[in-house]
Amino acid sequence: MNKPLILVVEDDTAVSSLITTTLETQSYQYHTAKNGAAAILDAVTYHPDVILLDLGLPDMDGVEIIKKVRGWSNTPVIVVSARSEDRDKVEALDAGADDYLTKPFSVDELLARLRVALRRVRYDGQKTNQESSQYENGDLKIDYAAGCVYREGREIHLPPIEYRLLCLLAKNTGKVLTYNYILKEVWGNALPSDTPSLRVFMATLRKKIEPVPSEPRYIQTHIGIGYRMLRVSENS
Amino acid sequence: MNVNHSKWPEPQSQGEGGRPLRKGKLKIYLGYASGVGKTYAMLSAAQIQKDQGRDVAVGFLDSGCWPETEALAAGLERIPARKEPVREFDLDAALKRRPRLLLLDELSHVNAPGSRHRYRYQDVEEILRAGIDVSTTLDVQHLESLKDVVLNAAGISVEDRVPDHFFDMAFQVQLVDVDPEELFSRRREKRKRDPACQEPLFENRKNLAALREIALRRLAEWISRSSESIGKPLVPEAGEHLLICLSGAPSNEKVIRTAARMAEAFHSGFTALYVETPDSERMDEESRRRLRENRRLAEELGAKMATVFGGDVAAQIAEYAKVSRVSKIVIGRSAPSRHFFLPEKTLTDRLSQLAPDMDVYVIPNQKNSSQHRNRRLRMGERLSWKDLGKTLFLLLLVSLVGLGFYRAGFSEANMITVYLLGVLFVSIWTSTWIYGILASLASVLLFNFLFTVPRFSFRFYDASYPVTFLIMMSASLLASSLTMRVKGQAVLEARKAYRTEVLLETSQRLQEASQPETALQTMAEQMQKLLDRPVLFYLPGENKELEEPLIFRIKDRPFQSAYTGEEERAVALWVYRNDKHAGATTNTLSGAKLLYLSVRGQKSVLAVAGIVMEGYPEMDAFVKNLLLAMLDQYGLMLDKISSDREKQKAESRAQQEALRANLLRAISHDLRTPLTSISGNADILIRNSKMLDEEKKQAIYANINDDAIWLVNLVENLLAVTRIENGAMAIHMEPELMDEIFHEALHHLDRNISEHQLSVELSDDLLMAQMDARLIVQVLINLINNAVKYTPAGSHIQLKAEKKEDWVLVQVADDGQGIPDEAKLKIFDMFYTANNDWGDGRRSLGLGLALCKSIVTSHGGKIGVKDHFPHGAVFYFTLQSAEVEL
DSSP code of B4? Predict the structure, then answer.
């Protein structure tokens, strides 16, 4: 497979060069854009594998860019922003971003998020070729047709809500799903009063699918934002 | 001769359609009799105004016998009159039309039953409040305080009257005057022309002259009054205060009017006092009605109302007068009161005795004797068979005892004592003094009949018996009279005590209420206790509307849905907007089923209380006063609650301001150190990179990284501080799993954590607490980082959460050196830093723990530190636990 191409949208030169330097060390290809208009143009022209997007751009709001890009592309978008309020993150995620990273961030963190996004791209690419009636992720297997979940080959029993929850996360592996989104998809409504139940169901679900519940491998918690299913790489 | 007087220059014009910023202005065309041309003058002025482009409308015009006025009204817009039940001015139509100036004939008019207000001047009041100017006409004899004067001077009595304070608040008064001769001839001419048209009153020339004089004098009074009041509210001059006593006597009315005129003349305050005595209980219907009328009259004439309780009227008046700095007392002349064997001085004499330094004015009164007649009539009403039975039974009993004594050969003195005892008991057990007198008489007769020789006859031989009878009679009458008085006092005391108790209890319970809702609940309960009927409250909502009523029902008392129907709501809304009492038993909108009272705060009406009157007896003055006092207390309380909240808000704002200032100071100082280190180190690397060996470079890299991380942490804390500062709004509480929170916190810890042993203990995987997750994670990070920073490498740090009743207790325990007691007190203060012994330049803003404290406190929890066993420190905080319904 080719070296992945990353589109870096960032108006601050110092941060931009920090990111590109980091990408170079991992020998990723990259392209930089300094404003929103250029970013959209580049996204159309180069078909990047992942977009790293700063929300505070001089010409338009980053959320607008996400919406525009989502209009025609499924390219993973990782938001890199100094806005740390949960509200801003949720807004970006609901607009279609896959992940977010708050400034200041560590280089390790940035690379880890990139890997998650790239894995998703790769998996989506494979999936189109094979039967999608099954989901496999590490030791976890979901048979959508039979409605069964297996861990290490053994079937585990999940109540309906937990099963729906797991399927939703699995189908969006690598993407951070906000509480609102999950509630809407699983419960059919988005009443804030249901979020506590969501947390409890998630905790019980984790106990059943995680080998070590205190160190979750599959489902990541994003406090104040939502949850994300991670693709467990074969070698990890 | 037309005299036009104005208090202020013509009003500035006001934006059409806008909300009224001011009250409307009242112009009165004053005349001394009908036919002088008041309406004519008013209409001519209106025509001129209209020609000048002013928005003028005619509210109601009764042209009656003067067709020329009708002609003059031509061309003016007329607001259609109501047709039902009789032709009448339509107040609502006028309010809806909202002209700039409204013409309304005959201010003293009494509205037909079914109108909103009983009197037209009340209509005018409401129109003025709506910001509409009003021109109206008035004959001087309709002024309330002049009734007696007019009666004396012209021998005429009129029924429909206008209160003087209303007249005095007029913006302009224009006197319309013609010579009585001319008026007389005008009338004669008209009568010739149109015999059907009769001007019934004041045919006499002398009367007209007298009335004219009164009108001129009243105008002069108005002018002197208004010239004084320009630019300042009318306040009574210091030292002058008039007091009158209200009663149900027919003569009282005159006293009130006279006193009102005196108050006017002295420019003094004016209080109407009602002394409630034991006798008030037994007042007949007629007197009660008159008392109510008199109260209303006094109130209309601008008196402040007061009620006191006590048996001795003179003493009560004197006492009240002293306490409230009254300088003059006005009373009607009263006959000496007739208490048996206690001939009292007249009220006047007693008053001069009790309050020697006060002026007492006595108003003569021709109808004086009627009071005694009333008393006799009252007695008749109160006779009851039950009391008569009691009296007979007691008399029988004492006679039997007397007979027993006689058998035993006791002396006659013993029997007399037994009869006296009997009379005493009769007085105690029966409700009026008449039985005491009856018993006294009967005792003497029975004694005579049964025990004097010859026995069983009313004759007697011994000449000394008449004296014995007389003494016996006097003694028993005295005993009965005294007993009745004591009883009366006791009843009064009980009422007074009850009133004090209810008021005290109300105020006590209101004091306890810290929320408007609980205060309302308390108020409703107290009102129900007092009145024993359902009550309801309307609270103000948006846009000067009222919200749905809050109904407080009583078991076994019916509550009809009509009580909250459209019409009733309209009355409540009127009360709210006009801040006046209305509804059943009042003069305004009296067709309502409920009585509506406004709860007044300092600035506005805070609520409207509705009291069901239909099917319940009318409240007496005592209860009504009590109720008003309670509502006042409630209003005060609501004001207090809201001002407390304001104060709290202001305090917390001030605190935040102080926090911000301290923070800025600390930051600007402490930011420099890591920044110097970073920029200095980077500078070295840029300039001298080649001269440094790899090990040195690595050390410099590590320094830069450490300082940067320190700055990152600082920024996180600062962000948290700003969120707290923004107030409770920024704190977004949600139930969160403690498990997730712990994970998040551990994820963000210092790199140095690897040198310490960290363990986590959760009592329940599904333990949830109410919190703003980001802030609580920050608290945990700060606490754990502190533990890492202040304990030697290799120490154990334990993170624990458990449920304690409704709270979740979170603890961060270490086994380091612990914290000395004196530091424990200050450790949560802002900018406090432990004077650590390591001296390795660990920086701290002293912000971390202070921030933790403010975060936890704003969550409603507690934070603290205690010793760990055997050594070390435990930092703990509590959060409200959350339950989940699945």
Answer: E
pTM greater than 0.80 (yes/no): no
- CATH number (3.40.50.300, 3.40.50.2300, 3.20.20.190, 3.50.50.60) of A5-126 reads 3.40.50.2300
User: Do B2-229 and B513-645 have matching folds?
Assistant: no
CA-to-CA distance for A32 and A42, rounded, in angstroms?
9
DSSP 8-state symbol, B145:
G
Return the CA Rg of chain B.
Answer: 42
Contact A200 B766 (CB under 8 A): yes
Q: Taking a C-beta distance cutoff of 8 angstroms, is the pair B301, B216 a contact? A: no
pLDDT tens figures, B192-244: 776 666 555 555 777 788 888 888 888 888 877 766 555 444 444 445 788 88
CB distance B638 to B599 below 8 Å: yes
Q: Is B618 an interface residue toward A (CB < 8 Å)?
A: no
CB contact under 8 A, B734 and A192: yes
The secondary structure of A68-96 as a DSSP string is HHHTT----EEEEES---HHHHHHHHHHT
CA B465 vs. chain centroid, Å, equals 65
For chain A, counts of helices (H) and of strands (E)? 8, 12
Q: From the CB of residue B747, how many other CB atoms can be counted at a distance below 10 Å?
A: 11
CB–CB contact A199 B708 (8 Å): no
Place of tokens 């001085």: B345
Instruction: Classify domain A132-229 by CATH architecture.
Output: Orthogonal Bundle (1.10)
**Under 8 Å CB-to-CB from B637, ≥6 apart: which residues?**
B510, B511, B513, B519
One DSSP character per residue, B267-331 reads T-EEEEEEEE-GGGGG--HHHHHHHHHHHHHHHHTTPEEEEEE-S-HHHHHHHHHHHTT--EEEE
Cβ distance of A221 and B740 shorter than 8 Å: yes
| Position B50, amino acid | K
Please write the tens of the pLDDT for every residue from B644-660.
888 888 887 887 777 67
**CA–CA separation, B135 and B173 (whole Å):** 10
Q: Tell whether B729 is within 8 A of chain A (Cβ).
A: no
Q: Which residue of B lies nearest to A83 if distances are taken between CA atoms?
A: B719
Rounded to 10°, the helix B412-429/B433-451 angle is 160
The ipTM (two decimal places) reads 0.73
Phi first, then psi: give them for residue B766, nearest 5 degrees. -100, 20
Instruction: Quickly list DSSP for B369-427.
Output: THHHHHHHHHHHHH--HHHHHHHHHHHHHHHHHHHHHHHHT--HHHHHHHHHHHHHHHH
Q: Tokens representing B217?
A: 């004098």
Question: At the top level of CATH, which class does the domain B241-377 belong to?
Answer: alpha beta
Of B587, B624, B625, B620, nearest in space to B285 by CA: B620
Contacting B with CB below 8 Å, chain A residues are 84, 86, 104, 192, 195-197, 199-201, 203-204, 207, 213-214, 221, 223-224
Q: Do A199 and B760 touch (CB under 8 A)?
A: no
Mean pLDDT on B165-193: 80
B38-42, B84-88, B131-135: least confidently modelled range: B84-88
Looking at CATH, the fold of the domain delimited by B731-880 is given as: Heat Shock Protein 90 (3.30.565)
CB of B886 within 8 Å of any CB in chain A?
Answer: yes
Spans of all domains in chain A:
5-126, 132-229
Size of interface A-B (CB pairs under 8 A): 52
Q: CB under 8 Å to B611, separation ≥6 — which residues?
A: B527, B531, B533, B535, B594, B595, B596, B597, B627
CATH class of the B513-645 domain in this structure: alpha beta
CB burial class (10 A; 0-12, 13-18, 19+) of residue A176? Answer: buried
DSSP H helices, B513-620, are 516-531, 566-578
| Residue count of chain B | 886
Cβ atoms of residues B161 and B144 within 8 Å? yes
